Amino acid sequence: MSAPAGPPDTGSDDKLDRGVLKVAGVVVLGAIMSILDVTVVSVALPTFQSEFNTTVATAAWTMTAYTLALAAVIPITGWAADRFGTKRLYLTSLVLFVLGSVLCAFAWDIGPLIGARILQGLGGGMLMPLGMTIMTRAAGPDRVGRVMAVLGIPMLLGPIGGPILGGWLIDVASWHWIFLINLPIGIFAFIAAFRVLPKDQPQPSESFDFVGMALLSPGLAAFLYGVSSIPEHGTVRNAEVLAPAIIGLVLVVAFVFHALRKDHPLIDLHLFLNRHLTIAVVTMSLFIVAFMGAGLLFPSYFLQVRGETTTMAGILLAPQGIGAMVTMPIAGRLTDKTGPGKLVLGGIVLIAIGMTTFTQLEADTSYWLLLSSLFVMGLGMGMTMMPIMTAALASLTHGEVARGSTLMNIVQQTGGSIGTAVMSVILTNHILNNQAATAYYGGVQTGTADQLPPDIFEAGRSALAEAFGNTYLVAIVLVVLCIIPALFLPRSKQELRTDPREEGEGEGEGDVDQAPPVMLH
């Protein structure tokens, strides 16, 4: 069924009006819950081990199961949003997420807890792509940059606030409250979403791509499971890594061939005919692998080399979030006016400059230098991630936004998992290649580092700091490589708003607002 190509008229004033800000507030609230729960559980893993008398690997499944559920449900979000309407699906996602949170809190063993985390992930996985779709449609093409900047807030708060919130709740109450806190927030978010979010018309005639779902959802989950197992085994050459990763990759490739032949695939790969979206996907993939992988190392350095508590490690990362909050709203406005190209290039340069400090890490590197560097990196991040997202979505038609949002979230989820695994393995190999670093790191893991002889303790700390620095050399190379695709991002408002697929089919037909009706895919 055809859908109107352009979003509703937003008026001549391109400022974010009160109605759009209300929608943004509701969406951000849901996104914060979803993203926080990716990181808030990380600090509870030792508690789960002792509480349920289980192993480290089994306890880690409370994080892995949530992540895999996110990856599995994201591909169907675009179709479901078109079929049932974004508001109805968003409310359903909130209910699933809150129900999963309550079941997590009342879990009596590690198995039921992992099962409840899967349910929680199924709801949480849809919140972010749905939020992007709702906000993009509400704001219209001329304000996509600004609404993407607003949606970037939970992406910043999650990695920083998760460990702090989780550690504090466990300290003052119990592990149950890292899940129960979602109940009042979720109820408030549901009421607000019911009252504020605009109604939209579903497209009931479109058939569901069952074959595509059977290929892509388990394919992504299996591939990410294999990739996320790399740090545990320390190598790619392991059956538990290779088997699921290869099976997942085969399923994803099979989906690609299936989707190119089907009229209404689960993910419309014909969106890649839009040059702006394709370039944005390539840029985002490189950026996420580099930045998310490096982001894993920051708290680890503070915890393992500097001996900080989890809560303090989270606080020490705050300058990065503050820096991003400074530039993100400015970058959002400028992206709408001038296009994302120059901003993204400037952001990448700032990230590379800030990260240079971490390539020279020592056991006693000045905190002022580290925090200043994190702030500079935050400034760069605020100019990078959401403008790239804007480049992907701004030239899509109204009916394509849901599928485009879904595609970009798959890229983020996959890139983040790959980056985390790659950086973990590189760091582990650097540690294993140094005897002093291995001895000290083993002591940190078992809580016996302070029992090491003073000379081995200091030598081990220095060697471990050097291992972190060498790993950051790889991260900074990946960051610099982002410059290549970023050079081709739109550098003007006119170029950003023009659908490149219309080029050659008639002048003046590429504008999103004037684009002809398209078939939903």
UniProtKB/TrEMBL annotation:
Subcellular location: Cell membrane
The species this protein was found in: Jiangella alba
Any GO molecular function: transmembrane transporter activity
Segments crossing the lipid bilayer: 20-45, 57-77, 89-108, 114-135, 147-170, 176-198, 210-230, 242-260, 272-298, 310-331, 343-361, 367-394, 406-427, 471-489
Pfam families to which the protein is assigned, alphabetical: MFS_1
Boundaries of every Major facilitator superfamily (MFS) profile domain copy: 23-493
Signal peptide coordinates: none
Record flagged with keyword NADP: no
InterPro entries: EmrB-like, MFS, MFS_dom, MFS_trans_sf
Membrane disposition: Multi-pass membrane protein
GO cellular component, one term: plasma membrane
Record-given protein name: Drug resistance transporter, EmrB/QacA subfamily
Keywords, comma-separated and alphabetical: Cell membrane, Membrane, Transmembrane, Transmembrane helix, Transport
NCBIfam families associated with the record: efflux_EmrB
Segments of this protein annotated with the region Disordered: 496-521
CDD domains named among the record's database cross-references: MFS_LmrB_MDR_like
Upper classification of the organism: Bacteria, Bacillati, Actinomycetota, Actinomycetes, Jiangellales
